[in-house]
What we know:
By secondary structure, the protein is an alpha/beta fold. The chain is about 50% helix and about 25% strand. The protein folds into four domains: about 1-130, Response regulator (Rossmann fold), CATH 3.40.50.2300; about 130-235, Beta-Lactamase, CATH 3.30.450; about 250-405, 2-Layer Sandwich (Alpha-Beta Plaits), CATH 3.30.70; about 435-455 and about 490-525 and about 535-670, EAL domain (TIM Barrel, Alpha-Beta Barrel).
Amino acid sequence: xxxxxxxxxxxxxxxxxxxxxxxxxxxxxxxxxxxxxxxxxxxxxxxxxxxxxxxxxxxxxxxxxxxxxxxxxxxxxxxxxxxxxxxxxxxxxxxxxxxxxxxxxxxxxxxxxxxxxxxxxxxxxxxxxxxxxxxxxxxxxxxxxxxxxxxxxxxxxxxxxxxxxxxxxxxxxxxxxxxxxxxxxxxxxxxxxxxxxxxxxxxxxxxxxxxxxxxxxxxxxxxxxxxxxxxxxxxxxxxxxxxxxxxxxxxxxxxxxxxxxxxxxxxxxxxxxxxxxxxxxxxxxxxxxxxxxxxxxxxxxxxxxxxxxxxxxxxxxxxxxxxxxxxxxxxxxxxxxxxxxxxxxxxxxxxxxxxxxxxxxxxxxxxxxxxxxxxxxxxxxxxxxxxxxxxxxxxxxxxxxxxxxxxxxxxxxxxxxxxxxxxxxxxxxxxxxxxxxxxxxxxxxxxxxxxxxxxxxxxxxxxxxxxxxxxxxxxxxxxxxxxxxxxxxxxxxxxxxxxxxxxxxxxxxxxxxxxxxxxxxxxxxxxxxxxxxxxxxxxxxxxxxxxxxxxxxxxxxxxxxxxxxxxxxxxxxxxxxxxxxxxxxxxxxxxxxxxxxxxxxxxxxxxxxxxxxxxxxxxxxxxxxxxxxxxxxxxxxxxxxxxxxxxxxxxxxxxxxxxxxxxxxxxxxx
Length: 670
């Protein structure tokens, strides 16, 4: 809507008619006051036409209009002199002579509208440029000069307007000038508009920035408007997130996720160069014992020190990963034969020969290592990792502190172990386990004093799985706890049954695993069983190997004292095969010592074994311990043991392990 302001009645009528004919909606007023009121209240008015000849102090009047609204104004004048026009030129969007024809009138109006829109856009752009929170730079793409910088850019970079506009965009970047210039040319040609740079500030700081650059025309010349966003904190956060995702927080080594991302790339490189890759799977042998004995902080520190040791001493072609817990993986690239893998394994084992000083303790941590080779042992990461894991466990089973290369036979062994573990779980539920009993004979009167319970597994009538095969698997899988409970409960029920049937009192010994003994688990298990099954605790004897005691003498003594207070006797099994220290026996409430069969079998023919056997019996007597010889098979062994004063015997010379039915017949005969 156009507002016409003129006092000439005839002229105003004529011009209103002209505006109507030209298709414009218009209002007319002759009063400056009325005009100001309309401009204030009628927002539809978007152009003012003023006859300056009819307005007193028209310059002041125009200033009042522009103070109210930014609106285009066309001036009508009767003079051709420059003076009045010059006075209002800054606010003029067009001017007309009194006698201008309709065409000129219409053209001037249209030009005023167009010019106002351009100015309005220009003002908007200027306002955005001046007030935007992001740094903005106007750049000449020909020579990379910075032509203009907004206040945000001045604040960000630390240079003032004059200093910044005296620089080139290439001066801000730490990239090569040619590289930056090329990027600016891409922006000019609209082939690319998003860039990542590192810009330096006036104080020397380096910032990560993202630049959105677009081509604009200013004064008929092509320029680049670059919006610069500081993304330093975001980049740092991304690096932190990436580190958390791909690196182990404890050791700073690449983690399992990084391993699965990177190893396939190593395979591709090997395939392209017709080379091999060795994968070493490493497990620390004594980590669990250190963790349990010295606490998790010490265990964590051990992992950190091992990681440092590996990183410091391995070749750049070797990448170390922490897969989890105490398990590490090392990839060995650019090799032509598998022996390169053994060189790395030898070096690792050599590095681990020296003790670690942790919390003022010198601790050793050896390792078992399994090695698989691409492409010999697998074509993908999953297969190679599985096979190196299998080889590592086989190395651990072979005595630890060594390494083995994967073979297909190991896979068969591993599958057999998994099958046994799975079936053993079913066996516990399906009553496939049974106990055999091997009698113990008193040397003085030849009577049965009791028996050792021995676990047997018969999956079906035609098959048996020896304890030497399934017990180690039960221990590594944790099933041994359930197995122990089943054996203890079964023995106690049998003792109760014999007592009810009137059999003579006897003592049945039960082998208990180290896992069950540790942390006093055995105390709760036996407490629960004896609460349920009423038998004299003295009829039960617990057999534990000496190595279990020595892992923690203090804890072992406390547990044994509590077992003793329950009325249960303790026997040290397989004495002589481990530490064979009588020193610790003085500190532990044990009642019986069992001499291992390895000494007994050769005692009658080998003087060394005979001497060891005699020494064990003599020292046991001095400590008031009962001595039982196991594995007695010949009369010569019986005579030797009898001469030395051994208390009881157990072995094939008297009876093999037998089922419950045969054992009861054996009891009845005696």
